[in-house]
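User: I'm new to structure prediction. If I give you an amino acid sequence, what do you actually give back? Let's try with this one:
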Amino acid sequence: MSNETSAPRTSAGLFIIASPSGGGKTSLVNALLSSDSRLALSVSHTTRPPRAGEVDGQHYHFTDSETFDCMVEEGAFLEHATVFRHSYGTHAEALQSQLDQGLDVILEIDWQGAAQVRLVFPASRSIFILPPSLEVLRERLSRRGQDSEEVIQHRMREAQAEISHWEEFDYLVVNEEFQDALRDLRAIIRACRLGREVQCRQHSALLAELLGNG
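Assistant: Good question. You get back a string of structure tokens that encode the predicted 3D arrangement of the chain. For your 214 residues, that looks like this:
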């Protein structure tokens, strides 16, 4: 377990985590969240139906297409995109509320959403998770046992299209061994929290005292 839960809550901001389907980002994000109370997940809205075990409001805010389209027209979303024929979006006010609480917020979104977020939050840090090989990626997609060969081939093509945007991200993490990838993600988040601007906010009183300005 991380010992960062006792640290002062000074937000480092937004962390965008993306990967192709089968890259393992959801499992990694869940592990991050379970060990660090300073991290929060921005729960997206989606038009896709819930999968087995998914809870509305916890995994996604499940909504119908008409409601989602109305929210788009109202400008409710910070970003939104269509993936595998379903729409996904990040509610702007809900995200801002989390940031206002001093939390570091994870956006688990695709490259399209990441590009939109950067326009509004240029200081956000983005991480792309890669599979160790196409063979492993295919095994992970096939392991679900829910899709036909045709669907798997389509998802493989979509995954390679997603991977082609890797250069748009600040960090790359290869998810070959889960614990190694998790350590890499924790190291990135910790390094961002130690950045000058974050530390300046956190230790403003100390800096003023040390410089004789207190």
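You can read the tokens as a compact description of the fold. Here is one thing that stands out. Strands lie at 14-18, 39-41, 45-46, 61-62, 77-83, 86-91, 104-108, 125-130, 171-174.
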